[in-house]
Amino acid sequence: MRTTSKTMTKTHNRDEKVILILDDHSARSRKISEYLQSAGYQVVPAADRKKALTLIRRQVFDLAVINDQHNGEDGFLLMDELRETQHGLPTIIVAGQGSIERAVEVMKHGACHYLVGPVDGPQLAGQIEQCLGLRQKEPVGRPKPSSPQPELAPSCARIIAHSDVMKDVLAKIGQVAVSDANVYIEGESGTGKELVARCLHGASRRKDGPFIAINCAAIPENLLESELLGYEKGAFTGADGRRDGLFAQAHGGTFFLDELAELPLSMQAKLLRILEEREFYPLGSNRKVTVDVRIIAASNRRLEQQMKEGRFREDLYYRVRVIPITLPPLRERKEDILPLAHYFLEQFSRDSGKSVQHIAPAAARKLMAADWPGNIRELENTIEYAVALADGDTITPELVSGSLSAENDTPPLRHAKADFEKDYLIQILERHRGIVSRAASEAGKHRADFYALLRKHNLSVNDFRTN
């Protein structure tokens, strides 16, 4: 087998081309790999089928070279398994011995080339060059639409689960959906907690009932009780009529409490009583309201730590966290990145009226390599950005880089703005000694918006009031 370098015509950027070599003959694989690397390709060898399947779930390849009788397994089967994950992957089948009938069969099956006999590095490189030249304008990397994942209710269709960890999450959802036990969903911001809550609701016996969601961090503390419990006319200034609270609206269905860790301690006590007794009194009313709801709560904070710091009631913790579900960050479910990217690609392409249909392999590799601190939400924004600026039908690596650069430049600015905002709030609260009406007036904010800012920065007006 010749391993000497040979000058080759460069018709594409090989620095971005990654070749998977599936061969159980280590010496032969090593020599071919060394030659291809000297020719400018990135080569990833796999000694067995299991290793190859693991690699292709975690990395985007431009082409695969498969030994036709690798460990006694049919090259067709191996090619099908690889394409199950990376649809349209160009494949070269190499056989020690072969026939015209087998060659025709292999080519009909979709292989790019079928090579027989001792194959040297330059010969294989030439065939790779041809295959990549044929595929240069046809991006690969889209997972096969029929990639298996657990089947659940239609409400769960938007949950992409190609990774084992997310398949486990869906399996757990299937187990607990039939129960009425309270569920607590924990995960970083942007991991899809409300999506899972809606999936649980849609798969439960309550699916025909209402699904009511509230973000506990978005409602000022002084308005939370009236929002949750409702009120009678005249219960407080501005209560011009009777209004049902969110608990009453959720009767017979599911009540999703997002960012539960932000709920004030005073409201935590009221929530605990409602969960224990399934009844409450609206503000300004002596009329008892009985409710039948399933509680699903979520937070991006660890409630255990909140309890240690005295910010969350231990008794409420055990009431809401009957069944915990932990959502992994996107960086820990790499197999889902490209399926999610293609899901968003189809969505934004359709919504914008554009025909952006592909993600270039080099762009897909950038997506796979990113850390995604903003998780699925950040990936969604990246694809939306790329679709909006795409000139053709393909998302290029430059579009992905542009979006990721914008995302990476944003956090320091965001943090600086947040620091300034918090310092500003502290200054005006100190100046007005914690009197919210005056501080909000100086800031040019309505009281409700001002309270939301205080909650955002974890500030309490009581710390600024003088005795």
UniProtKB/TrEMBL annotation:
<dbReference type="InterPro" id="IPR025943">
    <property type="entry name" value="Sigma_54_int_dom_ATP-bd_2"/>
</dbReference>
<keyword id="KW-0805">Transcription regulation</keyword>
<dbReference type="GO" id="GO:0006355">
    <property type="term" value="P:regulation of DNA-templated transcription"/>
</dbReference>
<dbReference type="InterPro" id="IPR011006">
    <property type="entry name" value="CheY-like_superfamily"/>
</dbReference>
<keyword id="KW-0547">Nucleotide-binding</keyword>
<protein>
    <submittedName>
        <fullName>Two-component system, NtrC family, response regulator GlrR</fullName>
    </submittedName>
</protein>
<dbReference type="InterPro" id="IPR001789">
    <property type="entry name" value="Sig_transdc_resp-reg_receiver"/>
</dbReference>
<dbReference type="InterPro" id="IPR003593">
    <property type="entry name" value="AAA+_ATPase"/>
</dbReference>
<dbReference type="Pfam" id="PF02954">
    <property type="entry name" value="HTH_8"/>
</dbReference>
<feature type="domain" description="Response regulatory">
    <location>
        <begin position="18"/>
        <end position="132"/>
    </location>
</feature>
<dbReference type="InterPro" id="IPR002078">
    <property type="entry name" value="Sigma_54_int"/>
</dbReference>
<dbReference type="GO" id="GO:0043565">
    <property type="term" value="F:sequence-specific DNA binding"/>
</dbReference>
<dbReference type="Pfam" id="PF25601">
    <property type="entry name" value="AAA_lid_14"/>
</dbReference>
<dbReference type="Pfam" id="PF00072">
    <property type="entry name" value="Response_reg"/>
</dbReference>
<keyword id="KW-0238">DNA-binding</keyword>
<dbReference type="InterPro" id="IPR027417">
    <property type="entry name" value="P-loop_NTPase"/>
</dbReference>
<keyword id="KW-0804">Transcription</keyword>
<dbReference type="InterPro" id="IPR002197">
    <property type="entry name" value="HTH_Fis"/>
</dbReference>
<dbReference type="GO" id="GO:0000160">
    <property type="term" value="P:phosphorelay signal transduction system"/>
</dbReference>
<dbReference type="GO" id="GO:0005524">
    <property type="term" value="F:ATP binding"/>
</dbReference>
<dbReference type="InterPro" id="IPR058031">
    <property type="entry name" value="AAA_lid_NorR"/>
</dbReference>
<dbReference type="Pfam" id="PF00158">
    <property type="entry name" value="Sigma54_activat"/>
</dbReference>
<dbReference type="InterPro" id="IPR025662">
    <property type="entry name" value="Sigma_54_int_dom_ATP-bd_1"/>
</dbReference>
<feature type="domain" description="Sigma-54 factor interaction">
    <location>
        <begin position="159"/>
        <end position="388"/>
    </location>
</feature>
<keyword id="KW-0067">ATP-binding</keyword>
<dbReference type="InterPro" id="IPR009057">
    <property type="entry name" value="Homeodomain-like_sf"/>
</dbReference>
<dbReference type="InterPro" id="IPR025944">
    <property type="entry name" value="Sigma_54_int_dom_CS"/>
</dbReference>
